[in-house]
Amino acid sequence: MKYKTVEEIKPIIDKFLAExxxxxxxxxxxxxxxxxxxxxxxxxxxxxxxxxxxKAAKEQIxxxxxxxxxxxxxxxTIFALKNFDWK
Length: 87
Prior knowledge:
Helix content: over 70%
Structural class: mainly alpha
Largest sheet: none
Strand content: under 5%
Number of strands: 0
Oligomer: single chain
Radius of gyration: 13 Å
Distance between the termini: 34 Å
């Protein structure tokens, strides 16, 4: 694994969320900011040491989709939220 501790990964996540416009937040975008793949990001989420940090970041991204849905009701946003287990 590229990152050994949460202290290494958290500042990068925080920077991504702070510097990227909310409407551009995506899981893949977060993975790219971490210089990794979406699949690897999910593996980090499965690691107990990183799980809460990755889940919190994904919640922020999910929140951005929820705001978009409320404002615009776009089909793509609905699809994205279904990937977050929305029904």
